[in-house]
User: What shape does this take?
Amino acid sequence: MRKICHYFFAIPILLTCMFSIGQNVLAAEELSPNLKAATIIFDPSENETADYVKGDINGDGSFDVLDVVLLQKWLLSVPGTSLANWQAVDFCKDNQLNIFDLCIMKRELIKDQTTMENKDSNAVHVNMPTIVDDYDEITNDMKEMIWKKLESQYPTTDLTDFTFVYEPKHPFSKAVKGWIFSIYYKDILLRGLGTTMDDVYAIVISKQNQCERVDIHFIVDPIDFSKIDVTAHCISKSEAVSPDMYVEEPELIIYTVWNELPCLAYRAVKENEEGEYIINAITGEILEYIPYYFT
Assistant: This one.
């Protein structure tokens, strides 16, 4: 392996990314100027390794923090450092290694570690939906409660096409003492009209800030959602929904009512978010107006 060109000392590159190794958190702008300016260019034809693990720059078969430390040392020309395969960390795919690759490498390592944690927590559960939490408020114990509840309610049903998305701003979030989730089927939001609360949702109920139980509301049997042709041709939003009916862009959903098959529909939220219209996405018929009673 041959370095074609080593350091270009130019105006230091200031990056906004933050990365963490162990307990040490370092901003890119705090790095040595040598590291910020380092760029090493390679001849791609000189790579000897055809198969490799992305990020595995030391060649031990895995991508971990040791690879990050090695690249950082190598960019700083620390004596005695060498790379088993530079292409494994060419995250920018430009036949160069520099601070940009290092930042992406650290971000990918954190993402991989998070993915492995989620897989480990779901390892004993089969045919379960994905649980998404963009607010970092849902603990593994809470996810475990949801999965166990689903397994007890639907022991033979494959729920892998469903996604539970934690939404603290859900229209009914003020009505519940707990954490509420919207439910999606094949990435389409489910909405419904039930008998207790007007929606399809899941809730982890809290009592004095302690998780007490989980309530799951599909309104119909989850198997019924597999009977929907989610690729069916829908009329346009402008044809289905009058502009005076909504203040937010109408959203394609799957609408559900007790004892009826779900259907594709548009959801149009009214001014001041006091309620929403549900319009059949195939026929344009207004199916329901759902007021937010519980807000």
Remarks:
- Residues 200 and 218 are 5 Å apart (CA to CA).
- The longest helix spans residues 99-121.
